[in-house]
Amino acid sequence: MIASHLTDEKTAQLLDRALPELEAQQARAHVAQCPDCQERVHAVEALMLQLRAEPASDEQLVRGVMARISDENSASSRRGMWSALAAGVSVATVALVMVRSPADDVGMTARGGPVAVAPVHLKAFQARGAGMERLAEGDRTGLPLKLSVTLDVLPAQGATHAAVYARDAAGRVTWLLPSWTDAATSPGCVALPAGGGAVTSSHAVELPDPPTGTVEIVAVAATEACSIPALDERLESTGDITQGGLRVAERLRVVLDR
Amino acid sequence: MSSAPSEDSSRPSDDALMSLVCQGDRRAFELLVRRHEAAIRRYLGRMVGPAEAADLCQETLVSIWEMRSRYRAEGRFVALMYRVARSKAISHLRWRRVREVFAVAEARRHGHVPPTDQGAAPDPAALERLLASERDRALSARVSSLPTAMRDAVVLHYVEGLDYATISEITGAAEVTLRSRAHRGLALLAQQLGKGQS
């Protein structure tokens, strides 16, 4: 019998029958003698049972699905709407800056400053990593990365709308500053306040494997409202928002180091 | 742990039904919908929360109908089903973040915070529904606190009962990675459980 209590991870492995047979026997023997570990195992088993509880069948949902599949043209007509909304988006200047900064107490940080001469520019941003300590244990699952973005609006060149997105090393896009012009279905660019001003956004971004890499932050300026899904579709299909006549106002490139 | 919900030999298999669905048989598709909608809804509920699970479940099933002509009867219907549902969940989580960011930006733009229900008289029926769903929401909140990749592994393995090979097929991640994520995720849930009880 092992002397020490089971860790939560060991408990999970035991319940998943993932321990080698000898180790599993020792763990089971310990649990049989240890009230604390018995309580832990029973609590996790109870949690799993609750999670597995299957909801009752939903007749309304079934009827809804069957009604919808009789109208197969709906999806294609929706896609057409997004394409139409994307048309007419205009352009501004492009700037690029790379920032590298020393590691801090959580292992990773990056900061950037303003780049002037643009109708919309990122006045400041800060990226801070959390959960980096998991890397030491070889766990490369989602690493929350907090990004704070400030848009400083200069009402020049007719820019009335803006959006900001972050793209990580794997090409995954997270929109940091969008809008919601059609309450039901159409998130679009933020309408900029007339006369200029700051619009601030704070957002958590998860980095994929590998956790160290480059995050690109891009501000898009437009002279009229544009649809985020349409921009998103373009990013996913071409990897470049500047395709098809659409341009960016500013692009910041942040190198994240441990 | 099996790779799919258990099949009753007296009823047509998923593949047999999909063969009919490929020919446009809506009745066969309805049987599939009735067979799997609760499991899909449970999965989506754990991934995005119970409030939005029904809508995403409907989107998942409609998408499966729309891609029926590309289905190959290789006993992989359950993997396909979860792959589509997972895609819907991830997309939804992404747009949820968009809406949250917008709410903050829009409130600041107008110089006020969104209105709350403070001071409003409680609706007894609504309160009843809230209490009834409190337990499920608390569970979903615990699962939602896990990183997405870890949540995937925990929900698909421990909740949906899929083996790691099938989850690997669904997510594209290596089995050893999924195993590690599932164990670590369950351990995190157990820690939260301990904190909640202390």
Keywords:
heterodimer, A: 258 residues, alpha+beta, six-stranded mixed beta sheet, 28% helix, 28% strand, B: 198 residues, mainly alpha
Helix content class of chain B: over 70%
For the largest beta-sheet of chain B, the strand count, sense and barrel status come to: none
Amino-to-carboxy terminus distance of chain A: 41 Å
Cα gyration radius of chain B (Å): 20 Å
Low-pLDDT regions of chain B: 1-7, 113-122
Number of strands of chain B: 0
Largest sheet of chain A: 6 strands, mixed
Question: Approximately how much beta-strand content do the residues of chain A carry?
Answer: 25-35%
**Rg of Cα set of chain A:** 25 Å
Mean pLDDT of chain A: 58
Outline the secondary-structure elements:
The complex is a heterodimer of chains A (258) and B (198).
Chain A: H1 8-15, H2 21-33, H3 35-52, H4 59-68, H5 74-86, E1 96-99, E2 109-112, E3 120-129, E4 143-153, E5 161-167, E6 173-177, E7 190-191, E8 197-207, E9 213-222, H6 228-238, E10 250-256
Helix pairs in contact in A: 1-3, 2-3, 5-6
Chain B: H1 14-22, H2 26-48, H3 50-66, H4 77-109, H5 124-144, H6 148-159, H7 164-171, H8 175-197
Helix pairs in contact in B: 1-2, 2-3, 2-4, 2-5, 3-4, 4-7, 6-8, 7-8
Q: What would you note in describing this structure?
A:
The complex is a heterodimer of chains A (258) and B (198). With 258 residues, chain A is α+β, with helices and mostly antiparallel strands. Helices cover 28% and strands 28% of the residues of chain A. Chain A has six helices and ten strands. In chain A, the strands form two sheets. In chain A, strands 1, 5, 6, 7, 9 and 10 form a six-stranded mixed sheet that branches. A four-stranded antiparallel sheet of chain A has the order 2-3-4-8, with no helix packed on it. Chain A starts with 7 loop residues before the first helix and ends with a strand. Chain B is mainly α and 198 residues long. In chain B, 74% of the residues lie in helices and 0% in strands. Chain B has helices at residues 14-22, 26-48, 50-66, 77-109, 124-144, 148-159, 164-171, 175-197. In chain B, helix 1 (14-22) crosses helix 2 and helix 2 crosses helix 4 (77-109). Chain B is globular and about 55 Å long. Classes of the chains: A alpha+beta (258), B mainly alpha (198). At the A-B interface, helix 1, helix 3, helix 4, strand 6 and strand 7 of A face helix 2, helix 3, helix 4, helix 5 and helix 6 of B.
